[in-house]
Amino acid sequence: MSGTEFGAVLHEMLGDADVAGRELWRRLAELGVTALAVPEKSGGLGASPLDLVVACEELGHHAVPGPVAESLAAVPALLVALGDAGADGGWLGGLAAGDVIATLAVPPGVPLAAGAEVAGLVLLASGGRVSVGRPGRFYGSVDPGRSLAEVRAGPVVAEDAGEAVERALEFGALACSAQLLGAGRALLEASVRHAQVRVQFGRPVGAFQAVKHRLADVAIGLEFARPLLDAAAVALGEDTATAGRDVPAARRDVSAAKVACAEAAHRAARAALQVHGAIGYTAEHELSRFLLLVRALVPAWGSPAEHRARVLRELG
Amino acid sequence: MTGVFRAEVRDWLGAHVPAAPLPSLDTAAGFEAHRAWERELAAARLAVVSWPAAYGGRDASLTDWLVFEEEYYAAGAPARVGQNGLFMLAPTLFAFGTDEQRDRILPRMAAADDIWAQAWSEPDAGSDLAAIRSRGVRVCGGWVLSGTKTWCSRAAFADRAFGLFRTDLSAERHRGLSYLLFGLRAPGVTVRPIRQLGGRTGFAEIFLDEVFVPDSDVVGAPGDGWRIAMSTASHERGLSLRSPGRFLAAADRLVALWQRSDSADAALGARVADAWIGARAYQLHTQATAARLASGADLGTAASLGKVFWSELDVALHETALDLLGPWAEVRDGPDGRWLEDYLFALAGPIYAGTNEIQRTLIAERLLGLPR
């Protein structure tokens, strides 16, 4: 299924107001989305990171709530990496089937687990130790569609799993970047639609050069973030496939993608709010879901500042 | 193929790129030094790798052309003095010229026997190019040109020029324009070099007083000049004018400068990272564009996205370097003077080939569908 086809299915599904939480996840599982990052031998599709990016971008494009980067990307990547050491806990099959929704915290960079209230599996990765945790204190996110929880450590799954945890962080950042790019696209589309029909001073506001140029800049940002995202996915895929993998190059590309997608989505959000005016500043308007999702995801899985610093380190 | 080609280009450049930079191509001596360098490239059949072999090229794919460019900039090889002809006129002749024109013009261009200048703008026609007033009057066997062209890159020392002229005074704006070629030392042509911001004569004003152009130097049909020139403009804005190699090489030098500087300024570090990320994005984007073009797609308005991106990246990258250099940033002839020279060059990017304001309007109206 292409990104466009998947987008159309999502659009129809999300039009149904009753579909949310676990029911939404069950439907995503039926589409195969939850199985993408799970290997075939564990009941998944063993899809490439590029396929995962296509799916996550569409989920972002529709502001689908829930632990998307966590359950679809980071946790499967962690468990696959641990599985090589025989410590995957048998959860991968449940993730692929959609029976298990998973999330994790990786302090200090990812201090809180997103979507823990719907998750059947909550992991804590700290100092190379991975344990099955349970949600502690819950916090509210700027995005009302997202919950955040501290994770209290429970039974240990693996020790000295630093490499597997890094893998989880790379996949979390990759999926989060894809969500941001998708949300950014949606914000640009909404801005263009609004600017075409909203009339002030007897003209559609989109006829004013100040509006045109601002939205052109949004389009440029999104256009040049995409190739970085694709390259990061390819680098992580090669990373899996080859023995002599180029881990620093993959890290550098993932960080470049996160910076570019976060900046492009942020620019799209600021422009969208400004172009919509007061109506965009209301909780009822659909725009708010995207504005707040972007605000939540920009610092998630490594802030732009952290990823810029990592790009510089990897280049050195 | 690509790996072998890259190795050949790298080896050849390693053995031939002058150790000391050539004098500026915007001086008479520097221009000729750059012409000699072009001839060395041509002799190795590296001047125009993407052209057909019959005209001095190697029939290389766009992807291999990008490889050539990456190696060329990474080696710090001299600026291409023939750039206007190679990357603007030549694609136009491939698309719209006659066999006779291609056979006559392209081999001499590849060998740097003729170096071409562009003659688009006029004193009253800059961003609004369709306002041009220089005209061609029909005579037996050709056209007689009169008028003024300005901001003509390389015209101070070049041999020939291409531009648009109004050949049908009864037609309005975009109609009635023809794409014509003329010699810069032909009777009736006066060239007045213009000193640029950086003090050098990178462009010139051209005065035409009844200059005869034969029918064989009309590209495409008379009156069809606007359409033909716009196809050239998309080349100029798009991947052929500014290949990613230029920005990648500069970004790598910027990262090295950052490391050498031992600066603890995180804000500057972030700008260095952004410059590198931008250069990488442009490289990857161009590779994807090359693949699309190879499968028959047309660049069209999408070229405007790239033009704004690379020209602003270029300025930001060089401003970051200057900020890293601190008090040495203003020194033109010091060890790091190249950053300043390249910065002054980069400042023109958001203006030429259609200002970035024009590009943003094109993006908004033609790609996004906002009302005119």
Q: What is the CA–CA distance across the termini of chain A?
A: 40 Å
Count the DSSP helices of chain A.
Answer: 10
* Distance between the ends of chain B: 47 Å
Please mark out the parts of chain A with pLDDT under 50 across 5 or more consecutive residues, or reply none. none
On the 0 to 100 scale, the average pLDDT of chain A is: 93
Query: What is the β-strand count of chain B?
Result: 8
Integer average pLDDT of chain B: 93
Radius of gyration of chain B: 21 Å
**In which range does the helix fraction of chain A lie?**
55-70%
What shape does the CA trace of chain A take?
globular
Main beta sheet strand tally, sense and closure of chain A: 4 strands, mixed
Strand content of chain A: 5-15%
Topology:
The complex is a heterodimer of chains A (316) and B (372).
Chain A: H1 3-15, H2 21-30, H3 49-61, H4 68-83, H5 92-97, E1 102-105, E2 113-114, E3 121-126, E4 129-132, E5 134-140, E6 147-152, E7 156-158, H6 162-197, E8 199-200, E9 203-204, H7 209-241, H8 247-276, H9 287-297, H10 304-315
Helix pairs in contact in A: 1-3, 3-6, 3-7, 4-6, 6-7, 6-8, 6-9, 7-8, 8-9, 8-10
Chain B: H1 2-16, H2 28-43, H3 62-74, H4 83-96, H5 99-110, E1 116-119, E2 135-139, E3 142-153, E4 160-166, E5 177-183, E6 189-194, E7 203-214, E8 218-219, H6 225-237, H7 244-261, H8 266-294, H9 302-325, H10 337-346, H11 356-367
Parallel strand pairs in B: 1-4
Antiparallel strand pairs in B: 2-3, 3-7, 4-5, 5-8, 6-7
Helix pairs in contact in B: 1-3, 3-7, 4-5, 4-6, 7-8, 7-9, 8-9, 9-10, 9-11
